[in-house]
């Protein structure tokens, strides 16, 4: 009898719901919260990270730490990449804090971590769609598109054909 009934809600091949939020997505959201809070309070992100880690239950994910520490370590370079991608007349301080934090995380992932560009961009767009203004997803997507387009090509390696 079950062979003749149509399946009403297809599941992905993994058997997991397609609405499941990945642990990396959760880590990105938490990193954004920490970066946003530190900027709002005018504090070093590493201090805010340490405070949140001390009181976190469940503990902060390693990837949350990687993101916050990476943004703190590479902030000048990240901000320069974002600023270069902004439309003429637009400045980084003029962007909403949530958007700035999402952009910084995505640029860190694009330039310094082994995250596919498309994943970094889509995750940032998803975050601002949930947390920021109605215009933020297209703004963040456009800025990150320019960041990806301006990314230098990797130097040919020894394994690359001549």
Automatic annotation (TrEMBL):
Belongs to the NusB family. Involved in transcription antitermination. Required for transcription of ribosomal RNA (rRNA) genes. Binds specifically to the boxA antiterminator sequence of the ribosomal RNA (rrn) operons. Keywords: RNA-binding, Transcription, Transcription antitermination, Transcription regulation. InterPro entries: NusB-like_sf, NusB_fam, NusB_RsmB_TIM44. Residues 13-22 have a biased composition (Low complexity). This is Transcription antitermination protein NusB. GO terms for biological process: DNA-templated transcription termination; transcription antitermination. SUPFAM superfamilies: NusB-like. Residues 1-28 are annotated as: Disordered. It comes from the Bacteria. Pfam families: NusB. GO terms for cellular component: cytosol. Residues 26-148 form the NusB/RsmB/TIM44 domain. PANTHER family: ANTITERMINATION NUSB DOMAIN-CONTAINING PROTEIN, N UTILIZATION SUBSTANCE PROTEIN B-RELATED. GO terms for molecular function: RNA binding. The lineage of its organism: Bacteria, Bacillati, Actinomycetota, Actinomycetes, Propionibacteriales. Residues 1-11 have a biased composition (Polar residues). NCBIfam families: nusB.
């Amino acid at each position: 009898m079950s062979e003749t009934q149509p399946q009403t809600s297809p599941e992905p091949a993994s058997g997991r719901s397609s609405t499941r939020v990945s642990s990396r997505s959760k880590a990105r959201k938490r990193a954004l919260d920490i970066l946003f809070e530190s900027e709002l309070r005018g504090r070093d992100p590493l201090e805010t990270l340490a405070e949140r880690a001390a009181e976190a239950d469940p503990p902060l994910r390693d990837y949350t730490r990687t993101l916050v520490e990476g943004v703190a370590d590479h902030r000048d370079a990240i901000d320069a990449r974002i600023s270069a991608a902004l439309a003429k007349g637009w400045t980084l301080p003029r962007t909403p804090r949530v958007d700035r934090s999402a952009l910084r995380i995505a640029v860190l992932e694009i330039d310094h971590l082994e995250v596919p560009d498309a994943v970094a961009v889509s995750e940032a767009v998803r975050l601002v769609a949930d947390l920021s203004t109605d215009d933020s997803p297209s703004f963040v997507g456009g800025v990150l598109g320019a960041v990806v387009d301006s990314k230098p090509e990797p130097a040919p390696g020894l394994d690359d054909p001549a």
